Amino acid sequence: MTSSLDLPSIIGHRGSAGLAPENTLAGIRRAYEEGATWVEFDVKLTSDDVPILMHDDRLSRTTNGKGKVAAMTLNELQSLDAGAWFGSEFTGERVPTLHATLELCIGLGLGMNVELKPCPGREEETARITLQMIAEMWSDRLSLPPPLISSFDEKALTAAYDISPALPRGCLVTRVPRVWQKKMARFGCRTLNVSNRWIRKKHVESAREAGVPVLVYTVNDPDRALALLDMGVTAIFTDRVDLMRKALGRTR
Ligand code: G3P
Ligand code: MG
């Protein structure tokens, strides 16, 4: 499995969450159509241990269901509509499995940031099952760069490191910890993924000195994106791939 990181300056956030329902195949296709070369999405487990794409622990914001994602089997989850809440043209969109998502991204040649977003109590299993699937799918596709794995959750990130040490990992934080290099080393991370709200020039400078790419989420204002990239940020996660491509596409 190769571990080369070839990061672009724009990464579609949750697919392309400002243009299509987040964490759906339609959203990933839309990101691709708008010119993204990488996408980020969130992975958690169903009650019957199938990795699927979803941000929230509860169903109500992004589907027509109610209750906890962790309590749903894959069949139950896939009977829900995950698109109509965003716009009637997306009616019928389903919660995608990680397997279908990886197949789509591989088919389109999209790079991926797989964010482990475990439901409470399911941290290790989410990492184990997700990483196993990635390893299986990559075993006969050695030429494709593998996904960047990240998580806010330290248990999930530890498990990811133990299971697939060769896969690149991103240290995903809201604010940059004072001892960020220690934290990166603890999880064997290659990138520092930080909130737009809390990133500062001094962080970018010290990361650059250490040769660590900084990735910033979530940036939907093209001027802000330009300023961050000028500061030395490597990539921004955006819900609006269209606006970013227009603003940055020709020069970066
Ligand atoms: O991985 C970057 C970003 O997706 C982290 O925040 O809440 O959108 O998953 P969130
Ligand atoms: Mg995310």
What does this structure look like?
This protein has 252 residues and is α/β, with parallel strands linked by helices. The chain is built from nine helices and nine strands. A nine-stranded mixed β-sheet has the order 1-9-8-7-6-5-4-2-3. Helix 4 links the parallel strand 4 (111-116) and strand 5 (148-151). Helix 1 (25-33) packs parallel to helix 3. The chain is globular and about 50 Å long. The mean pLDDT is 95. The structure holds SN-glycerol-3-phosphate and magnesium ion. SN-glycerol-3-phosphate (G3P) is lined by residues 13, 40, 42, 55, 115, 150, 172, 193, 217, 237.
Strand order of the largest sheet: 1-9-8-7-6-5-4-2-3
Bound molecules: SN-glycerol-3-phosphate, magnesium ion
Biggest sheet features: 9 strands, mixed
State the helical fraction.
25-40%
Can you give the mean pLDDT? 95
The number of E-state strands comes to 9
**Strand residue percentage:** 15-25%
Low-confidence stretches: none
Pattern of helices and strands = EHEEHHEHEHEHEHEHEH
Helical stretch tally = 9
Shape by Cα distribution: globular
What structural class results from the helix and strand content? alpha/beta
This entry's quaternary arrangement is: single chain
Distance between the termini: 28 Å
Q: From the alpha-carbon coordinates, what is the Rg to the nearest angstrom?
A: 17 Å
